[in-house]
Amino acid sequence: MGIDVRGVTKLYGEQRALDNVSFGVATNQVVGFLGPNGAGKSTMMKIICCYIPASSGDVTVNGHDVIDHPVEVRRQVGYLPEHNPLYHDMYVREYLEFIAGLHKLERRKIGGRVDKMVEVTGLGPEVKKKIGALSRGYRQRVGLAQAMIHDPSVLIMDEPTSGLDPNQLLDIRALIRELGKQKTVILSTHIMQEVEAICDRVIIVNRGVIVADDETQVMRRKMSGGRIFVVEFDKKIGRKTLEQLPGVDSAELEQGRWRVRAADGADLREPLFRFAVDNGLAVLKLDVEEHSLEEVFHRLTAG
Ligand code: ADP
Ligand code: MG
Asked: What is the pLDDT of residues 188-247, one digit of tens each?
């Protein structure tokens, strides 16, 4: 089931924060929304969580429409907002019990559920403190605990690691990866490495549109830079034979053309021609892409 977003547009007055955005997220997948500030990441997340309505388009969560069945959607979605608004004067346990109450959890089950969340998020040592006394890392844990208190199958986290120190960052990332094994997770970030560390899939958003949507591994390959030689032969060949050529890092077939990545900036033009001759192939096309894909990413999301 998961999440289905179809043709979503969001207008703030004249401004198009989202422009006809569509994507689907399968269950038990960790998806990263990657994009610069103002791209529309938070807006998309708020729409999925029923916090704001889209101007047009449809969103369903596990088959429930966010406009027609918001109560059901909220039951199935946990949300960690961007600025994680917490009540600083409340004690950690008191706050989590309060949130559990808002979700109408059965009174006799609340204590156990709070214990469980404290355990899962590693809040144990700090549970007796007031929220205002906690470090940023522990406040994020409280935010995660409140997002999960009603055991939602979908978890939406808006910049969950922003403002954390390097150690806290590693802890929270590990925690999110763990959660992703049993839940559908969407998180937002503007850090490429974060996506690499946590996500199965990356959706790059810029100025309200999706500019790339790939599995992280595929995206990583695309981002890793290096020269790419685009070559088209007149016959089909196996990927392995190309990848065995000296100087070739990897090869991918895209719309009938091989995109051959060079190792260490090697010039593959001559080897590719020789390869063609040796194998009785004609070269129909040979181009060199000098831009690294890192640059392409920046171009996609710049300004
Ligand atoms: P991101 O989370 O990727 O930084 P946002 O979704 O917060 O992006 O914002 C997308 C665009 O919509 C930005 O230009 C932002 O200024 C604008 N925007 C967001 N919320 C509002 C609002 N409540 N009213 C007017 N404009 C908004
Ligand atoms: Mg945001």
From this structure: 998 877 888 899 999 999 999 999 999 987 776 666 556 789 999 999 999 999 999 998
Domain 3-221 CATH (choose: 3.40.30.10, 3.40.50.300, 2.40.50.100, 3.30.70.270)? 3.40.50.300
Residue 73 token pair: 């959607």
Q: Which atom of ligand 1 is nearest to the CA of 33?
A: 3
The residues pairing with 174 across neighbouring beta strands, listed in sequence order, are none
**Which bound ligand lies closest to the C-alpha atom of 41?**
1
Instruction: Encode pLDDT of 282-301 as tens digits.
Output: 999 999 876 554 565 676 77
Helices (H), the chain: 41-48, 70-76, 92-102, 107-120, 136-148, 166-179, 192-198, 216-223, 239-243, 269-278, 293-301
CA of 159, closest atom in ligand 1: 2
Residue list, ligand 1 pocket, CB within 6 Å: 12, 15, 17, 35, 37-43
Taking the centre of ligand 2 as the mean of its atom positions, its distance from the CA of residue 259, in whole angstroms, is 35
**pTM given for the model:** 0.78
The CATH fold assigned to 226-291 is Alpha-Beta Plaits (3.30.70)
Task: Determine which residue's CA is closest to atom 16 belonging to ligand 1.
Answer: 38
Q: What is the residue with the minimal CA distance to atom 21 of ligand 1?
A: 12
